[in-house]
Amino acid sequence: MSNPARSPLLTDLYQLTMLQAYFNEGSDATAVFEFFVRKLPAQRNFLVAAGLDTALDFLENLKFNREELAWLEQSGNFSPAFLAWLAQFRFTGSVHAMPEGRIFFANEPVLRITAPICQAQLVESRIVNILQQQILVASKAARCVLSAPDRVLVDFGMRRAHGAEAAMGTARSSYIAGFAGTATVLAGMRWEIPTFGTMAHSFVQAHGSEMEAFRAFALAQPDNVVLLIDTYDTLRAARMVVALSTELAELGIRIKGVRIDSGDLAGLSRKVREILDQGGCQDIKILLSGNLDEYRLRDILDAGAPVDGFGIGTSLAVSADAPSLDCVYKLQEYAGLARRKKSSGKETWPGRKQVRREFDNNGTWLHDTLCLEHESVAGEALLFAVMHNGQRVESEPLSIIRERCASELARLPSALAALDTADPGYSVLISPGLVDLARAVDRRFS
Amino acid sequence: MSNPARSPLLTDLYQLTMLQAYFNEGSDATAVFEFFVRKLPAQRNFLVAAGLDTALDFLENLKFNREELAWLEQSGNFSPAFLAWLAQFRFTGSVHAMPEGRIFFANEPVLRITAPICQAQLVESRIVNILQQQILVASKAARCVLSAPDRVLVDFGMRRAHGAEAAMGTARSSYIAGFAGTATVLAGMRWEIPTFGTMAHSFVQAHGSEMEAFRAFALAQPDNVVLLIDTYDTLRAARMVVALSTELAELGIRIKGVRIDSGDLAGLSRKVREILDQGGCQDIKILLSGNLDEYRLRDILDAGAPVDGFGIGTSLAVSADAPSLDCVYKLQEYAGLARRKKSSGKETWPGRKQVRREFDNNGTWLHDTLCLEHESVAGEALLFAVMHNGQRVESEPLSIIRERCASELARLPSALAALDTADPGYSVLISPGLVDLARAVDRRFS
User: Fold this and answer.
1) What crossing angle do the helices spanning A124-147 and A52-60 adopt, rounded to 10°?
2) Is residue A144 pLDDT above 90, yes or no?
3) Rounded Cα–Cα distance for residues A368 and A352 (Å)
4) A221 contacts on B by Cβ (under 8 Å)
5) Smallest CA–CA separation between A361 and chain B, in Å?
6) Quick one: closest CA in B to A208, which residue?
7) Size of the A and B interface in Cβ pairs below 8 Å
8) In terms of CA atoms, which chain A residue is nearest residue B187?
9) What is the pLDDT of residues B354-382, one digit of tens each?
10) Which of A99, A163, A297, B231 could form a Cys-Cys staple with B166, CB 3.0–4.6 A?
11) B331: which chain A residues are within 8 Å (Cβ-Cβ)?
């Protein structure tokens, strides 16, 4: 099966039925759509922009192949002239976006697409599909980073991510947010993200004894000896590690760490630290894993547990306490006229927008202002041109994105950096120009 | 970027470091791993097997390409002999599994892999990654089906699914569970799942008036006229639909339905039904969408709302109230000896297992028994051989899987079919043979 991530048919049917209608009407005026989050999840004081690279990659490579066109034809829902037009389809529009790693809030456009309406409309479903997942993980990961400063955090989420693309997005997005790396090998290959990993319980079980398993592993991976010590009896295994460390030292092999994956993690880590220290193994690090999230990290560290790092899996990969965002991609302007959706409870701010962030003299964040693209409003602009005529302006190295996010997290107001819900949350003001435009649009369409 | 779903490097690094160790030891004895769910999520009385087709496809096509081998080589963690062995790697093992569409419970193996340990170990992460997501969606979808009998349910979840593969899995898994179809076009092309979809709010907004938008759409998609009526004022739009129906009838075009996506859905559907009926449009169906899940479906139908169908998106695609499963893939036997994990709170039942389901004379489910593969225990066996020597035994048509699931849901005990948590839940007994084996394993490894 070919890669669904590449197919223009990975979209909702209504995009194509609308396109047929636009095509019949000869509608190809410029449309402006913006992607934004309507409301932050209850447990999020901020979100982290991510997924832009995947989105731009998708737009750059978008075309219909022969098999896809043949399938649309046999469906009987589309005219031959329309299908001939689809065969030539390319995305030739512009994209403005917040760079990845930037912190943002509700109602702030993260990405804006300006293109002939058929192009801008067709890509809606996939743009949302890409951005939501990576924003969710980057934001969850940022909370983990904030709750465990100076600890090594590793993405263990691949197996519980929702499918292949989510697994890859989890590795990349958590790295952006400050994780040290990932267990997902393919993410290491694709993006040069540091990879972490040693052994599973099955490896211990497959050997006659834990000692035998540890020894076999150390000999096979002498530069990467982290031993999983909770398969049978964690403290007994810790004492084994002390004994083994002497034996391996004679071979020039150093045990770098032990991992505990079950039980009372805080309590066990203290006892294991004691056993290791008394055995002269002060250098061996302790890593924890198993159902961890930012709250557990905080509690374990608050309890003074001597932990060097954490592997975080499920809760990160599925953003367990907020597995979706109330995010949308909405028409804001068409054929030169601003538009807005007025459906009950789902009103949007019309027009092409910019977000400006104001700081005081110490660099502390004051508030953001949602304003018109070219309105004169104080503050740093957060959206930039990232694609012209269907071509990327430039690709950002992942290291730059990661540094940006670290710098954002370092400057974040402390109430927002806390795990508990900030009340009030961060202020996003609406500019006078935007209020005026919304009124004008309402008058026009009423 | 090549398709990550196809790469053997879409795995956790520890699989490869363990493989290097097994390779060095010359370990290639047969290992038996089973995938199962340790505990049902709080809001699930049962789960639905799904994802087997994707898993078998993955196993059949598993191999390392040149780029992947080169990357592993430059990482410096693997020996040349091991890399040469990886270059020849194929999955040649056997798979036993519950067929898709079958209902299952905690601790019951859904899939068992029997293969040389390196093969069986390498695939762990991806097998879990595939099965979890599809089981989650099939199970959530089954609850929607149970709460809205005889209604048309459509998967609208693509955009909020976590990435491309999850979107595809959502369409297929919800169809298995009894959804009428999906909005995801590519799922229609790949699996011949019926596709549904008409127009978005942006289409209405892009036109000078709702009437103009409705007319343009009907002319472009005369066989597929479902109109979205909540962009501005739902009741006003419903009256427009009545007027338009007469106009279109003269052109031989029939309006099939209207969709309401916001507001008080139950109340609006009643008022819209009244407007349509009074206007002689009794045939026009009413479809609802917008933040729906099985609870909302139940409430809307309990309120007597005249609804013909529902589009269900986010809550389905991310299984919002249970976005992950406590599911694992555990070593149960190695080199002819049964094994079990004893980590605190994570003990497993050892050995190759079968699940047998017993019914009374009326076909009512009594209980399941988790037993040894060849133990003589009453009841229908749920696991079958699905792959021999790395080749599928057969492919099941999706229609058969869907019928199986419908038949399972029809026979499900009513306490389990309810949305609320059944207490007690369904009984899964442990056979005497399994209890004895667990004791024997504990004696051997203590």
Assistant:
1) 160
2) yes
3) 16
4) 17, 20-21, 77
5) 40
6) B445
7) 358
8) A10
9) 999 999 988 889 999 999 999 999 999 99
10) A163
11) 201-202, 205-206
Contact status, residue A174 vs residue A319, Cβ threshold 8 Å: no
Q: Which residue of A has its CA nearest to B155?
A: A12
Q: Does B337 touch chain A (CB under 8 A)?
A: no
ipTM strictly over 0.90? yes
User: Across the interface, do A13 and B195 touch by the CB < 8 Å criterion?
Assistant: yes
**What fold does the segment set B197-289 form as a domain?**
TIM Barrel (3.20.20)
Contact A140, A52 (CB under 8 A): no
| Chain A hits for B11, Cβ within 8 Å | 158, 184-186
CB A139 within 8 A of CB A164: no
Query: Which residues 382-421 of chain A have a CB within 8 Å of chain B?
Result: none
The type of residue at A384 is F
* Sequence ranges of the domains in chain A: 4-137+325-445, 138-317
- The Cα of A429 is separated from the nearest Cα of chain B by a number of Å equal to 25
CB contact under 8 A, A11 and B201: no
Phi, psi for B96 (deg, rounded to 5)? -115, 145
Q: Which CATH architecture has domain A138-317?
A: Alpha-Beta Barrel (3.20)
CB of A196 less than 8 A from some CB of B: yes
**What is the CATH number that goes with domain B4-137+323-445?**
3.20.140.10
**Rounded Cα–Cα distance for residues A444 and A421 (Å):** 39
Residues facing residue A35 across a β-bridge: A111, A329
Nearest residue in B to A155, CA atom? B12
A444 touches chain B (CB under 8 A): no
CATH architecture of the domain with residue range A4-137+325-445 = Alpha-Beta Barrel (3.20)
Q: What tens digit of pLDDT does each residue of B377-424 get?
A: 999 999 999 999 999 998 899 999 999 999 999 999 999 999 999 999
pLDDT given at position A363: 84
One fold for B4-137+323-445 and B197-289 = no
Contacts of B57 in chain A (CB under 8 A): 1
* Residues of chain A neighbouring B225 (CB-CB closer than 8 A): none
> Quick check: B221 and A17 in contact, CB under 8 A?
yes
The answer to whether the Cβ–Cβ distance between B189 and A9 falls below 8 Å is: yes
Q: CB distance from B230 to chain A under 8 Å?
A: yes
**A221/B3 Cβ within 8 A:** no
Closest C-alpha to B225, from B205, B245, B243: B245
CA distance B298 to B417: 13
Give per-residue pLDDT as tens, B209-246: 999 999 999 999 999 999 999 998 999 999 999 999 99
Mean pLDDT for A71-82 is: 96
Q: What is the spatial distance between Cα A145 and Cα B429, in angstroms, rounded to a whole number?
A: 43
Dihedral sign, CA of A332, A334, A337, A341?
Answer: negative
- In chain A, which among 161-180 make CB contacts under 8 A with chain B? 161-169
